[in-house]
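In this supplementary section we document a worked example of the pipeline. Step one takes a protein sequence of length 216 as its only input; no multiple sequence alignment statistics are reported here. Step two produces a three-dimensional model, which step three serialises into structure tokens for compact storage. The input and output of this example are shown verbatim.
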Amino acid sequence: MKKALLFVCLFALCNLVVLGQAVRSYRMSHTAERSAFHVPPQEAPAGLRKIYSNLGKSKTDLYNDTNSYVVSGPNSGLNFTQFIAMSFTPKSNSHVSQVRVAVQYVAGANQVNLSIYGDTNDAPGTLLAGPVTVMNLPAYGTCCTLAVAEFSPLAVTGGTQYWVVADTPLTGTGSDFGGGWDLTVAYVPQAANLGSGWFGFNGLNQAAGEVLGTVP
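The serialised model returned by step three reads:
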């Protein structure tokens, strides 16, 4: 109960807003920066190349840590479930080995699931890899540590759209997670799941992250 109340209070302070998408809506939040001191992200493994990235060029300014899409499990203490997906399109045939995203922690179990999906009508379709449970996420409103998920090499096709999904279990450990996926400026296809299926939308900001692997 205390965790639920904490989550609600924190997101109230973050000025939660609702943006319309036809009859559906997705939720974003805004917060004050917790620290003006930024740290660089974890080092990427040697030998892996960027298959896709929308992160900033500076290692201490990779994303906007004051604005995010809300990521909340069905038992998070909020009155909604919301999962978020980041689209990416490889330039050439590749193998994905690692996903690094700006998902941050607010309340509940400090863990989130990251997966890779194929595309169906500009939204996540078939599960291709994962979920991988990532624990000990960075605190909400900080920069620039990333949530990192390792995958067995997954073959992807150049010019084809895929999705990185951040979600939680529907029940049990992790279903009470609440946090945010920080943003970067990019007008590209994005997707949200409010508990009843994925829908695509185009926003002025994209969930921040990158996809690493080998080419080919």
